[in-house]
């Protein structure tokens, strides 16, 4: 059996280790079996679309933790070059659009995922949840690949995109809005630059992208990001 090697990276949900010539993503929670199989299934779906994602090799239990064995991402993430105000977002937006040109058939519904998140979110009263669900229902659904966690830290080497756990089938503009929400926290001075770059490149309206912000912020309240909660509640519409 291949030995687990050195730590390559760590996030809120998982750690990634060397695993021979491959990479092993181990979830931090012992009960993360469903997450491991979900990400493995998502990677298998996007593999047939020839998208720049790691190939999945196995899903299983390793030293008492559930994980996914996949291709190792080459090089470092793109994040460093986006930390400066002058770095352009064109390459990232082009890569994002490449995903959105593919059918998301077989992936979970993005709208259904957001709806479930809003229903579970704490800090929202019944009236606000009802309004957010109605707002979500009024937004146009879609059938494209949506990564669900697309940001510079998940883009590596020659455009390999990692972390496909939250991949869904839905409206690309919702996926862009999710990226905007993530960038608001990590790179607040650059977040709107990305929306405007994607909009100019795709012909979408900035307003149509930001129309998804309230339901997406509300759904993110279920993700355990305590340092973002006050801002997420405000964006969701809590006075």
From TrEMBL:
It comes from the Bacteria. Signal peptide: none annotated. The keyword Kinase applies. Pfam families: APH. GO terms for molecular function: kinase activity. Keywords: Kinase, Transferase. SUPFAM superfamilies: Protein kinase-like (PK-like) (SSF56112). Residues 17-195 form the Aminoglycoside phosphotransferase domain. This is Aminoglycoside phosphotransferase (APT) family kinase protein.
